[in-house]
Amino acid sequence: MKSILRLTLNGRAREDLVPDNMLLLDYLREIANFTGTKQGCDGGECGACTVLVDNRPRLACSTLAHQVAGKTVETVEALATQGRISRLQAAFHEKLGTQCGFCTPGMIMAAEGLLRKNPDPSRDEIKTALAGNLCRCTGYVKIIESVEAAAGACCQEAAQ
Ligand code: FES
Ligand code: FES
Question: Which of 88, 99, 106, 108 has its CA 20 to 30 A from that of 40?
């Protein structure tokens, strides 16, 4: 069975015919063509599929697409504006918070959700916010430093 899914995705209202049992992750990648959201474990363990739903991080691999009906969904593609990456994205680049990059969209969306709620997080608060996101490359220190570097500037952007 398919039915119409209405939502706001990356700033744009959409209506799509979506199978009732389709995961949000598959909807984003296969129907909406926002492939920045990654499929890692596909079982709620790695955080690679993290997106924001009404400003709060959520695992797209553990959410049915129709569960976000009427909500505002943001993927990593939403963060760049007018061709310019966000302060948080730039911080990951400058502070070497990304290596192979597979975990990076999920890390950035989890961090973005934290910074919108808490503009000046402590190191422990950053660690807690990213606890569900796994990285095989960086050892995590550079990721935490990236979020610390973006704190403040990132939230001024979000408040605008
Ligand atoms: S792909 Fe969703 S948590 Fe790993
Ligand atoms: S940068 Fe490679 S998995 Fe995180």
Answer: 88
Whether 125 contacts 119, CB under 8 Å: no
pLDDT in tens, 93-121: 999 999 999 999 999 999 999 999 999 99
98 lines ligand 2 (CB under 6 A): yes
Query: In one letter, which amino acid is 154?
Result: C
Ligand 1 centroid–CA 49 distance in Å is 5
pLDDT in tens, 8-62: 999 999 999 999 999 999 999 999 999 999 999 989 999 999 999 999 999 999 9
Q: What share of the chain is helix, strand, coil (3-state, %, to 5)?
A: 40, 20, 40
Domains of the chain with CATH codes: 2-79 (3.10.20.30), 87-159 (1.10.150.120)
